[in-house]
Amino acid sequence: MSDGRQRTWTFLTNHARVLCLIAENPGIRLRDIAARVEITERACQRIVAELEADGYLTHEKIGRRNQYHLLPSTHLRHPLENDIEIGVLLGLFVGRNPSDHPPVNP
Predict the structure, then answer these.
(1) Would you tell me how many other CB atoms lie within 10 Å of the CB of residue 48?
(2) What number of CA atoms fall less than 13 Å from residue 88's CA on the CB side?
(3) Cα–Cα distance, 17 to 85 (Å, whole number)
(4) pLDDT of 37
(5) 20 to 30 A from 83, CA-CA: which of 1, 49, 62, 74?
(6) Which pLDDT score is estimated for 7?
(7) Which of 78, 75, 69, 77 is CA-nearest to residue 98?
(8) DSSP tag of 8
(9) Could you please report the per-residue DSSP string of 10-77?
(10) Domains along the chain?
(11) Range with the lowest mean pLDDT among 4-13, 19-28, 31-40, 67-76?
(12) 84/61 Cα distance (integer angstroms)
């Protein structure tokens, strides 16, 4: 990394981190996700687009903001975990089922 910190590996991917943040706050801005995950806004846009294209979330425009909707019954992608729904994974890190989150007002 250019700021002098040594980069180390982590257990969660940026895709998982983005999903967790959206599960915590379905009205979160991409800018805020990017800052928390420590990635660029463009990388965050790409991740959200990939997650949406692969059926893990949808979004709707409410005014100028996006409201995200996770699909917790979607399965993990890797063959070793493809029997596990993302809702189970998110439950470990978010603390409750993402479908239980009330809508956030923009």
Answers:
(1) 21
(2) 9
(3) 16
(4) 97
(5) 49
(6) 74
(7) 69
(8) -
(9) -SS-HHHHHHHHHHH-TT--HHHHHHHHTS-HHHHHHHHHHHHHTTSEEEEEETTEEEEEE-TTPBPS
(10) 14-99 (1.10.10.10)
(11) 4-13
(12) 30
- Let me know: does 72 contact 90? Beta carbons within 8 Å: yes
Which three-class secondary structure string do you get for 75-102?
ECCCCCCCCCEHHHHHHHHHCCCHHHCC
Following CA atoms 8, 14, 20, 25 in sequence, which dihedral angle do they give, to the nearest 10 degrees?
120
Q: At what angle do helices 14-24 and 30-37 cross, to 10 degrees?
A: 130
Please state the length of the chain: 106
Judged by DSSP in three states, 1 sits in coil
Pick the closest to residue 101 from 11, 24, 44 (CA basis): 24
